[in-house]
Amino acid sequence: MAARQYTVGIVYPEDDPTSTVPHSVEILIDVPDFVNSMRELDMELDDIGSLITLTLAADPSKFTLPIRLPLRIDSDSMTAKFKKKKKSIMASGRVLTVEQGQPRQLMEAVTVAREEFLGIRKPVEEVKEVKEEAVVPPVAPAAKDLYNKYKSIKPSGSEPLSTRPPPPATATATTTNATSELEEYNNFEKTVCGHPTNKLQLVSPTALISIVQTCLDLASHNPKDHKPTTNMASIMSSFFSQAQSELCRQLLVQAVKYVQQTNVSGATSAVLPEAVKAKFIKLAEFQMRKIEVILEEKLERQQALVEQGKARETEVGAFGGKHSEKRSTHAHAPVFDKNDENVDPKLPSQFVSDDLLVSGKTSKGSLSAVLLKSFKGSEKRRMKQVVVGRAEQTAEKLKANDYAILDGFVSPAKVVELRSEIDNLQPHFTPSEIWVGKGADVGAQISVPDVRGDKVLWMCGGHAKVDSTLFDSAGVQPKARGAIEPCEMEVKMKVGSKIDKGGVRKISASVMGKFAALKNVLESIDKFVFEELAKKDERLARITSRSDAMLAVYPGSGSRFQKHVDNTANDGRRLTVLLYLNLEGWTEENGGFLRVWGKDSKVNGPRDVMPLGGRIAMFYSDKVPHEVTAAQESRYAMTVWYYDGLERSEAVASANHVETGDEKGDMEAQAEASAFIKQTLVGDGQGSFDGTGENASAEELRRIGDLAGKLSEKAIKIVAGICGAPSEEYFLEAARQLTPDSLKELRVGLAKMGV
Ligand SMILES: O=C(O)CCC(=O)C(=O)O
Ligand SMILES: [Fe+2]
Fold first, then answer.
1. Where are the stretches annotated Disordered (predicted)?
2. Lowest-confidence pick of 15-24, 414-423, 504-513, 586-595
């Protein structure tokens, strides 16, 4: 008989952490050997969690089995590896089969779990059996210490703080008691958790439930009474608040809900088996490790900045301050580093030399093709070696220089295919926008062609890790797995995507076919980065997801992108990967070089990389200044950014936090400010703007003053911030009394910032 443990959890809607209506029941079947085996396959604990999770309907009477057995093994190689591994796992006789279909053992376990959940069956027998047979994975000493430390904390003895969630809106219990409980609950959340953001970013709900249950157990010391106590709060807060207050909050909210649910349903929670505790410890250890690494890295970065005499504030007040993720996902607004001390501007740039290149060509075609092809027998091993070798070379260059160039990653023929797919999308490209302003909440997103002259189109979908909650999409993801299509709803419709009555988008085969080459090439890049590169470079060890793909064309005529660093605001982007899509015959005269300031640029100056079709350029998004020099011909590229999971989760959480206020009002103010800047300060072609303000007519000056007077308070704040006015009042007054000279001053100021 297979050893098994399980936990039963109530799942609440993820997008509404305050909801008291359960969304579904989740059953976690714990199979230690299986977990360990999956670890050998290099799968993350999160993945393991969802591998062995069944999600069942919320209504117990509609408890049907099995509804879903997610096997999140995406790639062919992974599937093959899994199948092979599974044989040996099965041979040990201690695991449950988790194959698609109707696995008998698993159904049996689920049935037992269900009955227990409904109170039909007592858990005692099962728990005993588990205790006897459970194979507890070894626990690292640090985690064990941690466990003992928290386990030894005794309840304070004082009245437990009530942490019951607020009653639902329809509840009749509106006594003063309930009100004070609600207050207490809110205060509790505030004081323990810091700030009210949502979303658990780092562990799957299943893992969360394990953690919660273990916390409950650790805290209460009384399996029959799982009321959260102040003691539990202190455990949780001391455990998580340091680095992960969102995590902490989510855990607490879930814990409270869990307890409330078990009280309401009258069901008693099982005593948590040792193996579950061990699992929790492992998860906690996993989290702590991640947290430690990120804190170390942050510290390093801060120290580096201090050493360079460059405090974080230099971002503020210069062109392009910190940007807010939510607003700027599409533009991926860069920050322009005016105080770039990394480089001596006098050092001339040189062409990237051959020794800096990695070849993407192989005896079996381009690396992209090889990554997608399945080979047999000895050839399979050989090609794997080739891929691994190229990944090693790339990682070496990346580590040594902060950037790497992979030549011929896709073949010239593939470039032609890609270009024809892109050319059909040509009418839908729009001028890119950049974030101009002092900080995340003072600034505007506008198009400034002189700074960034490309036109872009975002393509959604094709993500290797589709259900990553970290992913912050540039639009609506296509429903069909693996499919890609334009992100913008309007463009989707124009290319033939349909919206049915239920609002569910169906992608027809013909739409899928339109972007088949793009889909493929993205898949190969993902494979190369996630499965190869990430394992060979420490800085990429935690990349968990990637952005949508940005297609960009610089339409010639000197269009360029001024020097910038993609991520200086800790927005999560760690690796920028560019695939150039210019047809054969791109010449030096065409310009459009990617100019990179790598590690050696202080001594050697920056390197110029020609945007040759099929070539990949990659660099650390948070380190490398780069620019696109003036392009005289249309220049095409596709860019994707890979996210560091932890940094990204923090960025998303704090963006949510920043914008929980009057989001709509903020957006409107942004739009107002952008329009004002465009029309009056930068010029809309109707005024007499010549870049100086010298020719401004009295009529134009009045127009600007009038427009400024009509701005909303919020918009005034934004515009004043961008212009560098000492106060909003000052800005208004200056706008009212605008003279050609003061307009000139203003414009010169803006020009300095790059506008
Ligand atoms: O196209 C390139 O070579 C670089 C573009 C770039 O820097 C960006 O989109 O952030
Ligand atoms: Fe960039």
1. 154-176, 318-340
2. 15-24
Taking the whole predicted model, whether its pTM rises above 0.90 is answered as no
Q: Please tell me the distance from the alpha carbon of residue 688 to that of residue 206, in angstroms, as a whole number.
A: 63
- Ligand 1 centre from 626 Cα, in Å? 8
Helix (H) or strand (E) holding 751: helix 740-752
C-alpha to C-alpha distance for 693 and 708, rounded to whole angstroms: 17
The residue whose C-alpha atom lies closest to atom 7 belonging to ligand 1 is 627
Query: Which of 352, 622, 639 most suits a substitution to test ligand 1, by most atoms within 8 Å of the C-beta?
Result: 639
Q: 138-169 burial, b for 16+ CB within 10 Å, e for fewer?
A: ebeeebeebbeebeeeeeeeeebbebbbeeee
Q: 419 C-alpha to center of ligand 2: Å?
A: 21
Tokens of 14: 């993820």
Which residue, by CA, sits nearest to atom 1 of ligand 1?
637
Question: Which has the higher per-residue pLDDT, 94 or 626?
Answer: 626
Calculate the alpha carbon distances from 403 to 302, 570, 575 in Å.
22, 19, 9
How close is the Cα of 501 to the center of ligand 1, in Å? 39
Whether residue 237 contacts residue 193, with contact meaning beta carbons closer than 8 Å, is answered with yes
pLDDT digit string (tens) for 201-250? 233 334 444 445 544 544 443 334 434 333 343 444 433 332 233 444 44
Distance CA(442)–CA(467), nearest Å, equals 32
Q: ipTM of the predicted structure? A: 0.99
